[in-house]
Amino acid sequence: MGELNKILHVEDEADIREIAHMALELIGGFEVAQAELGTVALDIVEGFAPDMILIDVQMPELTGPETLEAIRKMPGFENIPAIYMTAKVSESEKGSLIGPLELGLISKPFDPTTLATQIRAMWDKGLSAAAA
């Protein structure tokens, strides 16, 4: 993992996509591509080449974990880090979602003014864990 500049955000709810896009680009200074479904993310991930994926857990068609699994089967994306966003997650589900490539979990509703800071903190923590 190097510097975090490009984020692929996968979220089925349009209002959340819009708020997150503003929070990440305008406040955070990231380059952001968005997909409303996991299948769309699979179509655009190679062309966009994100540094990280910010992804909803519960989505129609492919869930967040299923989408990540499919992306990580693509050449060059086997180790792409991700952060989950979810409105509903129990502690037991949290444990099953977070693996070595998942940097963390952000609860919805999220604070748009601190979203970029949260993501950078998780990224930096992931960098130090990878170096350890």
Features of the shown structure:
single chain, 132 residues, alpha/beta, five-stranded parallel sheet, 5 strands, 43% helix, globular, CheY-like_superfamily, Bact_response_regulator, Response regulator, Sig_transdc_resp-reg_receiver, phosphoprotein
Task: Give an overview of the whole structure.
The structure is a single chain. The protein is α/β, with parallel strands linked by helices and 132 residues long. Helix content is 43%, strand content 20%. The protein has helices at residues 14-27, 38-48, 64-71, 91-97, 115-131, and strands at 6-10, 31-35, 52-56, 82-86, 102-107. Strand 3 (52-56), helix 3 and strand 4 form a beta-alpha-beta unit.
Short structural description:
InterPro entries: Bact_response_regulator (IPR050595), CheY-like_superfamily (IPR011006), Sig_transdc_resp-reg_receiver (IPR001789). The chain is α/β, with parallel strands linked by helices and 132 residues long.
